[in-house]
Specification:
Blueprint lengths: L5 E8 L2 E6 L8 E10 L6 H18 L2 E3 L2 H4 L13 H4 L6 E10 L2 E10 L4 E11 L3 H17 L9 E6 L9 E6 L7 E2 L7 E6 L5 E12 L2 E12 L5 E5 L1
Parallel strand pairs: 3-4, 3-5
Antiparallel strand pairs: 1-2, 5-6, 6-7, 8-9, 9-10, 11-12, 12-13, 13-14
Amino acid sequence: MHYIVLICLLCVHAHATIYLTVTGATVKRAKIAIGQVHPQDSTGDVQLARNVRDQLLSDLEFANIFEFISESLYSKLDQPRDVYSMKYEEWTPFGVAFVLKLGYRLQAGKLVVEAILHDIPGQKKIFATRYQYPAGQYPRLIHTITEDILRELTGERGLFLSRILIVCYDLKRHRAPPKEVYVADPDGKNLTQVTLDNTLSFSPSWMNDGKHITYSQYEWVVSNGFRKRGVVIKKHDLATGERKILTS
């Protein structure tokens, strides 16, 4: 799903500034500069910082409401010492609407990222927020930053903290391959296996609380004193893995 947008700068709605109005039949993207993810102490991890920025660019590109200006234009203004400072007049010649500056550090296995979003035409800071996630879960941290950017600029929620239920099977097993239930982020990443039952699992569905799912499975059931293969519907707690049969 892509956002179709009409850009409207500095419109006031419900006591909040709406920068981008998601409406209309044409796409007019806002120019944005995404800074490097700069280490703020000696705990830097170059590859992790690169992965974090790549994920952020991927999220914002997927949102389809931004035009990214070339990093070569502003590299001199995006140094580690510049994360917490801003001279708006230096960015104005680039015709950029927004600038996102980023700093990070590693702390007890946690990735701490500080994101600062600036409105260049309005010459003001839109938000400055610190995020903390386990380092191995950096995509979820970036999804959270993307959600905050979209909410601040459009007044709308995005889909980046949503999850998708998927049924997958191994293409290498040509004869009656088992099908298992997985959960993935909206961009298909962070694919996590939910079932491992070597049977047919199908028709997964979210329950209203977002913490439990249901799905159907073929397994052995007892009916009229006879044991046979049949279909059961199970409820599954995604946090604990606890399951119970709702009906057979």
